[in-house]
């Protein structure tokens, strides 16, 4: 299938839209343009705090839209004219830690809670932690993460994903009950959080959307990649753009608490301005 796909690319020279921008990946885009008509259209991120902003969805369809699809024939292949949908509100993709079944009222209450908490924190003081909605972390990793955040002594906002194993969930619940200086939430609007003036660092799995959102908000990263393009993205963050640092896992594949604390202090300490 992939062979046929690339053969067709050679034949038709398709136009490809890429969620990046020239200043970020100039060399890569230049090489790609030798073979494809590539257009950098990024950063495609929702503006923080603009939940009522009108946005264009390239894929969203409702019953009314189906009536407007007009089948045609071109070269024996049935195609359709798909209308771009203008919708109010909902973001293009679920924010980190989001569960699709959550009711709007529940999200509204959560948003008010963590935004009020952020508003009470000093500027650039909060460590925001989220590892996306795919990877699952062990009890040991969660314990080390909490230990590292406590060592930092900085306020933190941690967005946990659904489906954590029982032991890992208990670790976070105990950390929350013990008071301290952190807040654990089941869901948050990530672009809105990153654009808040209280946020000074983003501990991330370095998924592409999260990386772009951090760049757009000017928030330095502590990268903790584990799979797919995350490793490449972490390299881009640390080595190419120098807008963050990658945490090193130990021999067991765990990011130790001391290592997390070290990385956070590097990007939020005396030299933090160089990361912004």
What does this protein look like?
With 276 residues, this protein is of the alpha/beta class. The chain has two domains: 2-88, no CATH class; 104-275, 3-Layer(aba) Sandwich (Rossmann fold), CATH 3.40.50. The protein has ten helices and twelve strands. The protein has helices at residues 2-12, 26-32, 63-67, 104-119, 139-152, 166-177, 190-194, 208-217, 230-240, 257-268; strands at residues 15-18, 37-40, 54-57, 70-74, 77-81, 85-88, 126-130, 156-159, 182-185, 199-204, 221-223, 244-246. The strands form four sheets. Strands 9-8-7-10-11-12 form a six-stranded parallel sheet, with helices on both faces. Helix 5 runs parallel beside helix 6 (166-177) and helix 5 crosses helix 10. The radius of gyration is 21 Å and the shape is globular. The chain starts with a helix and ends in an 8-residue tail after the last helix. The relative contact order is 0.12. Keywords: Glycosyltransferase, Transferase. Belongs to the UDP-glycosyltransferase family. Residues 85-104 are annotated as: Disordered.
Give the structural class. alpha/beta
The stretches of 5 or more residues where confidence is low (pLDDT under 50) are: 63-101
Give the overall pLDDT as a whole number: 77
Our Rg estimate from Cα atoms comes to 21 Å
Number of separate helices: 10
Helical content class: 25-40%
Instruction: Please give the order of strands in the largest beta sheet.
Output: 9-8-7-10-11-12
Cα separation of the termini: 43 Å
């Amino acid at each position: 299938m992939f062979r046929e796909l690339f053969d067709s690319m050679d034949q038709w020279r398709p136009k490809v839209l890429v969620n990046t921008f020239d200043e970020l990946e100039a060399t890569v885009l230049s090489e790609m343009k030798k073979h494809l008509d590539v257009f950098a259209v990024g950063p495609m991120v929702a503006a923080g705090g603009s939940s009522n902003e009108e946005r264009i969805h390239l894929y969203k369809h409702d019953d009314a839209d189906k009536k407007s699809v007009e089948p045609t024939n071109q070269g024996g292949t049935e195609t359709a004219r798909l209308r771009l949908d203008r919708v109010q509100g909902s973001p293009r993709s679920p924010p980190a830690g989001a569960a699709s079944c959550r009711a709007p009222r529940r999200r509204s209450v959560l948003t008010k809670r963590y935004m009020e908490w952020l508003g009470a924190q000093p500027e650039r003081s909060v460590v925001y932690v989220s590892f996306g909605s795919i990877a699952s972390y062990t009890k040991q990793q969660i314990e080390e993460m909490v230990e590292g955040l406590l060592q930092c002594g900085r306020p933190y906002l941690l967005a946990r994903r659904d489906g954590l194993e029982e032991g890992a969930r208990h670790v976070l619940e105990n950390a929350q009950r013990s008071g301290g200086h952190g807040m654990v939430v089941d869901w948050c609007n990530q672009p809105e959080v990153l654009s808040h003036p209280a946020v000074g660092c983003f501990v991330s799995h370095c998924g592409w959307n999260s990386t772009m959102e951090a760049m757009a908000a000017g928030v330095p990263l502590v990268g903790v990649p584990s799979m797919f393009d995350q490793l490449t993205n972490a390299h881009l963050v640390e080595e190419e753009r120098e807008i963050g640092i990658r945490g090193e896992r130990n021999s067991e594949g765990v990011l130790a608490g001391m290592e997390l604390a070290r990385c956070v202090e590097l990007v939020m300490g005396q030299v933090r301005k160089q990361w912004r």
